[in-house]
Amino acid sequence: MNYIGKLLNLQDKSFADFQAGLLPGTKRASIIGVRLPILRDIAKELIKDGSSKEWMKNLPHKFFEENLLHSIFISEMKDFDECVAETDRFLPFVDNWAVCDTMSPKSFKKNREKLLVKIRSWAESREVYTCRFGIKMLMNHFLDGDFREELLQIPASVKSEEYYVNMMIAWFFATALAKQWEPTVKYLENRSLSVWVHNKTIQKARESFRITAEQKTYLKSLKA
């Protein structure tokens, strides 16, 4: 089946216009306008018939939706080492937050220590979405049972002028405040983050339902 043709037949131009407004830097002509639940259904078909493997070989892709499908394929890969290899091959082609944040490999859950080595490498990258992906994986996998206080230093050490990197760092620390308050709040008390990230972390944390009223009041007092 011609899946590009299928994507084009599912096109919603008004939705594509809406997405374009959320993806500065992504050319409107590259956005077909297909909603993510529909793409997930298509991805299941491609994985089932084996077409996904061939699809992932064809980089770069032309359309935004093709990159979203690629992110879904990687997310569904069962072998950790193969998944990491495909992730490393794909990340240089990721050029927006939506594709980056859609990628959430299931195989990462059972390979935490090997994953942590890769997270450190990704977070150190100067490529915007490689760095963002690394910090997001740290947030997704290491703020609960596998949390260690020293891991907070990974995002804290990232110095960037890139909006989508700094927003991810703020998102990480806001989430960490909700899950690991005591060690995380020290980074705000000690002014360990850039002013922008510091204030954005406080803003996002104070918007969270997982932060108590008392904590929100205290965070407000820490605003730079």
Plain-language structure description:
With 224 residues, the chain is mainly alpha-helical. The protein folds into 2 domains: 1-110; 112-224, Serine Threonine Protein Phosphatase 5, Tetratricopeptide repeat, CATH 1.25.40. It has 14 helices and no strands. The protein has helices spanning 3-9, 13-22, 36-48, 51-57, 64-76, 80-90, 97-102, 112-123, 128-141, 153-156, 163-179, 181-189, 195-206, 213-221. Helix 3 packs across helix 5 (64-76). The longest helix is centred in the C-terminal third of the chain and has 17 residues, at 163-179.
Percent strand equals: under 5%
Q: Give helix and strand order, one letter per element, not per position.
A: HHHHHHHHHHHHHH
Indicate the overall shape. Answer: globular
The overall strand count is 0
Give the termini distance in whole angstroms.
56 Å
Which parts are unreliable, with pLDDT below 50 for 5 consecutive residues or more?
A: none
Q: What's the CATH topology name of the largest domain?
A: Serine Threonine Protein Phosphatase 5, Tetratricopeptide repeat
